[in-house]
Specification:
This protein is of the alpha+beta class. The chain contains 3 helices and 11 strands; from the N terminus they run αβββββαββββββα. The termini are far apart.
Length: 160
């Protein structure tokens, strides 16, 4: 579906309280709509649903890039507010090679520390993609293990 065709089906905006409002082609407005990705890690730009506050699907977006810039920006803002999964870019060091251990990492959101309770908190999603859950429940993504620097891979190998 073209961007013009998609735009004719709905309009997005935020109210003064930061709630997402979707106005459908029939003129109905839904305040408090939620945007969710079907495949947030494998295909973050595809298969995006907008649901009402009651959980009823209002709009399905095949590809985020099919939207006009304004709607794409609103969807991106709504997703950013809902999702929090920093990407680990580099592992600077660990305090211990046995668990629990504290990792010093550089992420897409800046430097931080996380506590790994056990090796089972490192989940392999594919050959090169991992999710690391810290003791506080925050999940960190390693998008491509092979693209990480040698030092980081060497440290990670001790836990995998």
């Amino acid at each position: 579906m073209s961007a013009a065709a998609l735009t004719s089906h709905f309009h997005l905006a935020f109210d003064p309280f930061g709630k997402l409002i979707i106005t459908l082609a029939d003129g109905s407005q839904h305040v408090g709509a939620v945007v969710a990705r079907a495949f947030p890690i494998a295909a973050p730009e595809e298969s995006i649903s907008i649901v009402s506050a009651e959980g009823k699907e209002l709009m399905w977006i095949e590809n985020l890039n099919d939207l006009p810039a304004h709607e794409r920006d609103i969807v991106a803002q709504a997703l950013e507010g809902r999702e929090f999964m920093p990407e680990i870019l580099r592992l600077d060091g660990v305090n211990s090679f046995s668990t629990p251990s504290v990792w010093r990492v550089q992420t897409s959101r800046g430097p931080t520390q996380l506590m790994l309770k056990g090796e089972e908190d490192i989940r392999r999603l594919s050959a090169n993609r991992l999710i690391v859950a810290d003791a506080h429940g925050v999940q960190f993504l390693i998008r491509d293990l092979s693209s990480l620097d040698r030092h980081t891979r060497k440290l990670l190998d001790r836990f995998l």
